[in-house]
Amino acid sequence: MIDTLLRREFPFASLKLLASARSAGTVIDVRGESIPVLEATPEAFEGVDIALFSAGGDVSLRLAPEAVKRGALVIDNTSAYRMAPEVPLVVPEVNAHEIFNHHGIIANPNCSTIQMMVALYPIYQVYGIRRIVVSTYQAASGAGQRAIEELKQTAAAILTGESPTASVLPVSKLEKHYPLAFNVLPQIDVFEANGYTKEEMKMVNETHKILADSRIQVTPTAVRVPVVYGHSEAVYVETEKPFVLEDVKNLLANSPGLILQDDPANQIYPQPLQAAGEFPVFVGRVRKDLFVENGLSLWVVADNILKGAALNAVQIAEIWVRQEGVL
Ligand code: 2RA
């Protein structure tokens, strides 16, 4: 988050770093200035204009209202408020106007939904979308630093002939764990009663809320793959209106936040290793279904930590600052 603020040259006059009591006292160097990390208490939000929250849903539920009470605009990176009707759920390339309908809190969507929305919104606007079938290939970093460490440890164990042990993935709070190295785990977050995981249901519900269209039939399968940074998605859509493939490619090539990387003859297509550390969403392998009249397949890749989290939050803050002259 700090890195993104600096890379985007966000116009902050001062930066306050808040964390749990355990992390308070650490000093972080920002632009050559040593900034102490303070404990996140309700009073700590006094004088804060914009509060970027990314410390888990419980912390957001406890402290976001305190920050709002003290005059801050909260941009929340957790799932705590995403589906609350009075809280806008914003992907700036799609529904930036919602930023101005907030009541103190704006929610940042889940990473896998954000990149899919950036890629699909131009298509939705021009052709309409009836149905989305999406399979994700999600990086370990989506499950946190411990998951990254576990991926590296399990890979090292297998490569040296030891048996890998896992205690974090697929879901740290559950009892059963499986190694991710040289493996693929079709479970991200806990299962719901309908057989879908929470991550998959986020893709359904958040798509409906962001596009303000709950008629779209979304069928997701969310999968963790042994990649450190960068989520990939195989997205299949059925549009309402017929399309010409070249027109769709041109549309995607000229849409905000998107880079078209689609040149099969030269083996050009998005890859997480190349997308890691980058701000845009990359789209490629754009092709027409062989059998279904309005069927279209896409391959969508983005840095889940940047566009899927920090960058999207900072973009929301940028728009707010620009329009409101807050700072
Ligand atoms: C994941 N969706 O990749 C999560 C992170 N928000 O597990």
TrEMBL record:
EC number(s) stated in the UniProt entry for this protein: 1.2.1.11
UniProt domain Semialdehyde dehydrogenase NAD-binding: residue ranges: 1-102
UniProt KW Amino-acid biosynthesis keyword: yes
Alphabetical keyword list: Amino-acid biosynthesis, Diaminopimelate biosynthesis, Lysine biosynthesis, Methionine biosynthesis, NADP, Oxidoreductase, Threonine biosynthesis
Known pathway: Amino-acid biosynthesis; L-methionine biosynthesis via de novo pathway; L-homoserine from L-aspartate: step 2/3; Amino-acid biosynthesis; L-threonine biosynthesis; L-threonine from L-aspartate: step 2/5; Amino-acid biosynthesis; L-lysine biosynthesis via DAP pathway; (S)-tetrahydrodipicolinate from L-aspartate: step 2/4
CDD domains: ASADH_C_bac_euk_like, VcASADH2_like_N
Record text on subunit structure and interactions: Homodimer.
Name of the protein in its database record: Aspartate-semialdehyde dehydrogenase
